[in-house]
Amino acid sequence: MMRALQVQNLSADLSGVSIVDTAIPEPQSDEVLLRIEAAALGFPDLLMTRGEYQAKPALPFIPGMEAAGVVVRAKSDGPWREGDRVIAGMLTGGVAQFGCFPEGALLRLPDRLSMAQGAALRAAYLTAWVALVCRGVAQAGEWLLVHGAAGGVGLAAVDLGVALGLKVIAVASTQEKREAIGGLYKPAHVIDGSAGFREQVLTITGGRGVDLVYDPVGGDVFDESTRCIAFDGRLLVVGFAAGRIPQIGANIPLIKGFSVVGVRAGEYGRRFPDRGRENIAHILEFADQGRIKPHVHAAFPLDDWKLAFQGMEERSVIGRSVVLPHG
């Protein structure tokens, strides 16, 4: 038997979520049994407990889209061996002591990273890589404006942007977050966007604006970004954490000479499998070399799972929080 977090009913207040005792799953022929050491939580995990995410797994389900752990059982002619340290990416199943995952859903965990860091690596940094490199065609020396820079995908974009040689302007809402971002990754500038950011950005860039905007926020942030982006800039649409999906007249990017570029990292890999594998390989290489380092805000034992979710609700998390199923 094992302990796992289970969503039994959808609710707005996590009342349908609880810890259960359940059988350790048996791996199918193409699966690996993993002892899960850390599960990273993202906003989609919270939305799924409410039934508000685009993917709606059947009830009951174990939340957790990202995890890291140790291989317990794998077929002898497969790519994994007992004792391998791996990262798992999936729709559900992470917040449990054990889980079965397809062989192809696992990645080697870089030696430099802890289990908690490994759990926080895949989705955030893949989103940042696809946005900046594949869709944004970022070049060293360009200006990058990162919104929601303290969030999971935002902080990854700051870290990766610095590693790529971009001049990063990180936007965060509180002094605590701004100090943390500056201390962790030392971007060129960290600014307060709560009262607007256009004038600050134009002053920093000498009036020309930024070459790339990384926007997982949407709403008013998107609107204002169009007023401080440089000619030939790329406005990368990553998400809509603000709630409002913005609209733009086609005349604005025409006159100002910038592109609005959609980013769907997972779908990019599904449409272009070879490129998807290359993207993952680049991220692992950067991690191996110490060029990127995922930040774990806090690690909670399984019994304190609710604190991890509440941190996301309150938007107090810097990077990612993780749950330790055996903690």
From TrEMBL:
GO molecular function: oxidoreductase activity
Gene3D superfamilies tied to this protein: Medium-chain alcohol dehydrogenases, catalytic domain, NAD(P)-binding Rossmann-like Domain
Highest taxon of the lineage: Bacteria
Family annotation (Pfam families): ADH_N (PF08240), ADH_zinc_N (PF00107)
CDD domains: QOR1 (cd08241)
Domain Enoyl reductase (ER) positions: 12-323
SUPFAM superfamilies xrefs: GroES-like, NAD(P)-binding Rossmann-fold domains
Coiled coil feature spans: none
Protein name: Alcohol dehydrogenase
Lineage, highest ranks first: Bacteria, Pseudomonadati, Pseudomonadota, Alphaproteobacteria, Sphingomonadales
